[in-house]
Design brief:
It is a single chain. Helix content is about 30%, strand content about 25%. The chain contains 19 helices and 30 strands. It folds into two domains: about 475 residues, ANL, N-terminal domain (Rossmann fold, 3-Layer(aba) Sandwich); about 140 residues, GMP Synthetase, Chain A, domain 3 (2-Layer Sandwich). A hairpin with a 3-residue loop joins strand 28 and strand 29. The strands form eight sheets. The chain has an eight-stranded mixed sheet with strand order 12-11-8-6-7-14-15-23, sandwiched between helices. By secondary structure, the protein is an alpha/beta fold. The structure holds adenosine-5'-monophosphate-propyl ester. Adenosine-5'-monophosphate-propyl ester binds next to helix 10, strand 20, strand 24 and strand 25.
């Protein structure tokens, strides 16, 4: 640890206190760094829990990410490098990106897309995805990107919530040398998602696809009629930029709505602080654009800063575990942002894959999505960063819109501590509280809350203000509840311990236990199911299903496999259960709520704790014996 570069804490505490007590003037200063078509009338309208930032200000995300760069030397620099797992590449200068975005926007207009309407983007990691997002924003429509690893049910649920009429997809996605039939998945989803009237298909191959006349259109045909220029629509700061669905504690995904002005200001500011990003940066975030990390880190923040973004369509270990390091060497990546799961995987493969490549271009390394264990942090620091690059462990959420707790090398603030996300960024009033909402002392675990509004915060949940209030603002009076466990140490540094609610993180992907349970129960032979996350040395957590079979079915191994395949097909490969166990009864409270806490205690071999609310003690005894048998069997294998 001696070699870790420490940044001086230049009066951080005073600086932070000042920012928090004057949030309006603090964020106003950051907002003036962007170009607005019209200045705002008011910095903040706070009607708890709804915030409106930079009210009356007019701007356009697409203008700021592309057009603005045409008036400087950025015009002919590379905005976007793209590479796939076969080694195919593409590069777009800012001018070329501008052309593509304009033409895409014109196509959307020709399809009849209007300001304020949702457009669903179900696309793999191809340049057309950021182009489609920026084109949608250009005309004031609202993009809803659905991760292309999701399957038809997950896609249909999200479409049905937005009631969108237009969907953009591709014929195929590609993963580890195999093709994923995206258009077929769309066809399946649209059987139960009838609002979609028009589907645009980007054809990447010559493979035949089915076309439904009048509904399906080919992108390369439509784009022929597109104009070269579409005016970027001036939009009020609180016009929604996008909706992004995320898993919560019920089966219904939550449509997190982000604003235009607040979201862009927050990301512009924080990417400078955390990554010290600039037009000289070659920025590579390995997340999929389908997650919030991809929205902020592949599209909006780097392009606002005129950086060069690298987009890679592929996995970390295909064709071999050196592929990411080869890419860093090839493009001279300066900022690299990935997940602890990926780093843990590379640790397992060993340093030999890293040593083959020259990683000396790297300046800053990032980690996101799940807690990073100190030993993984050290490995990342030593073997990837060559003991020169600070690691920014960035804590944030789909809902927060941007990074909230992280070291900030761009501000020359905050020493690094392996395993800790360190301190809240300026203007963010984070705290760890007990059940009653009172701050807990140093070294005590509690719930992470945010006590003031910030520009990147969600505007609400699409079409459901009550759920927004209930999920985030009712647990603790007047504060935003994150759903995470955390602790502060004696120096006030934050340590994150994962979710306190029924949300699990598999390889950094956020999944709701309820969504997986409802999928498991839809298998024809399953009567009831309970899902929990089990610690996994690589993925962070793995999915374990406890299921009750319907009458007439025997607890056989082939049914376990069927449940695994069923969930995988409905939600997607990321939700593939690791283990399935059959029981006759699930542990429930007297009011019928499944006590997942008890299931978790059993599989982790921990004390069961308080069971006064448990309806039937025999249920937990059965779970114990089923699990014991399973462990025994695993030993024998
Ligand atoms: O539990 C926290 C975990 O990821 C959750 C948010 O997931 P999602 O909305 O998918 O966004 C992920 C990427 C922004 C949080 O509630 N999480 C995120 N970053 C960290 C983290 N846990 C520990 N350390 C982090 N750096």
């Amino acid at each position: 640890m001696k070699k870790v570069k420490f940044y001086p804490v230049k009066g951080y505490i005073d600086f932070q206190r000042n920012a928090i007590s004057n949030i309006e003037s603090f964020w106003e200063k950051e907002a003036s760094k962007l170009e607005w078509f019209k200045h705002w009338d008011k910095v903040l309208e706070w009607e708890e829990p709804f915030a409106k930032w930079f009210v009356g200000g007019m701007l356009n995300a697409s203008y700021l990410c592309v057009d603005k760069h045409l008036y400087s030397w950025h015009k002919n620099k590379v905005a976007l490098y793209w590479e796939d797992e076969e080694g195919n590449t593409k590069a777009f200068s800012y001018f070329q990106l501008y052309r593509e975005v304009n033409r895409f926007a014109s196509m959307l207009k020709n399809l009849g897309v209007k300001k304020g309407e949702s457009v669903v983007l179900y696309l793999p990691m191809i340049p057309e995805l950021p182009i489609a997002m920026l084109a949608t924003a250009r005309i004031g429509a609202i993009h809803t990107v659905v991760f292309s690893g999701f399957s038809s049910k997950a896609l249909a649920d999200r479409i049905n919530d937005t009631s969108a009429e237009v969907l953009i997809t591709a014929d195929l996605g590609r993963r580890r040398g195999k093709f994923i039939p995206l258009k077929e998945i769309v066809d399946e989803a649209l059987k139960v998602a009838p609002t979609i009237k028009k589907v645009v298909v980007i054809k990447r191959t010559r493979e035949d696809i089915t076309i439904e006349e009048g509904r399906d259109f080919l992108y390369h045909e439509l784009i022929k009629d597109a104009e070269d220029y579409v005016e970027p629509k001036p939009l009020e700061s609180n016009h929604p930029l996008y909706i992004l669905y995320t898993s919560g504690t019920t089966g219904k995904p939550k449509g997190v709505v982000h604003s235009t002005g607040g979201y862009l200001v927050y990301n512009y500011a924080t990417y400078k602080w955390v990554f010290n990003i600039s037009a000289e940066s070659i920025y590579w975030c390995t997340a999929d654009v389908g997650w919030v990390t991809g929205h902020s880190s592949i599209v909006y923040a780097p392009l606002l800063h005129g950086a060069t973004v690298l987009m890679y369509e592929g996995t970390p270990d295909y064709p071999d575990p050196g592929v990411w390091w080869r890419i860093i060497e090839k493009y001279g990546v300066t900022i690299f942002y990935t997940s602890p799961t990926a780093i843990r995987m590379f640790m397992r493969y060993g340093e030999k894959w890293v040593k083959k490549y020259d990683l000396s271009s790297l300046k800053i390394l990032g980690s996101v999505g799940e807690p990073i264990n100190p030993e993984v942090w050290e490995w990342y620091y030593k073997h990837i960063g060559g003991e020169r690059c600070p690691i920014v462990d960035t804590w944030w959420q789909t809902e927060t819109g941007g990074i909230m707790i992280s070291p900030a090398p761009g501000l020359e603030l905050i020493p690094l501590k392996p395993g800790s996300a360190t301190l809240p960024l300026p203007g963010i009033d984070a705290e760890v509280v007990d059940e009653e909402g009172n701050p807990v002392g140093a070294g005590i675990k509690g719930y992470l809350v945010i006590r003031n509004p910030w520009p990147g915060m969600l505007m609400g949940l699409y079409g459901d203000p009550e759920r927004y209030k209930e999920v985030y603002w009712s647990r603790f009076q007047g504060t935003y509840y994150t759903g995470d466990y955390a602790m502060k140490d004696e120096e006030g540094y934050f340590w994150l311990f994962g979710r306190a609610d029924e949300v699990i993180k598999v390889a950094g992907h956020r999944l709701g236990t309820a969504e997986i349970e409802s999928s498991a129960v839809s298998a024809p032979f399953v009567a009831e199911a309970a899902v929990i996350g089990k610690p996994d040395p690589i993925k962070g957590e793995a999915i374990v299903v406890f299921a009750i079979l319907k009458e007439g079915y025997k607890p056989e191994d082939n049914l376990k496999k069927e449940i695994i395949n069923h969930v995988r097909e409905q939600i997607g490969p990321i939700a593939t259960p690791e283990e399935v166990h059959f029981v006759a009864k699930l542990p429930k409270t007297r009011s019928g709520k499944i006590m997942r806490r008890l299931l978790k205690a059993v599989i982790m071999d921990k004390p069961i704790g308080d069971i006064t609310t448990l309806e039937d003690e025999a249920s937990i005894e059965e779970v114990k014996s089923v699990y014991e048998e399973f462990k025994q069997m695993m030993k024998e294998v």
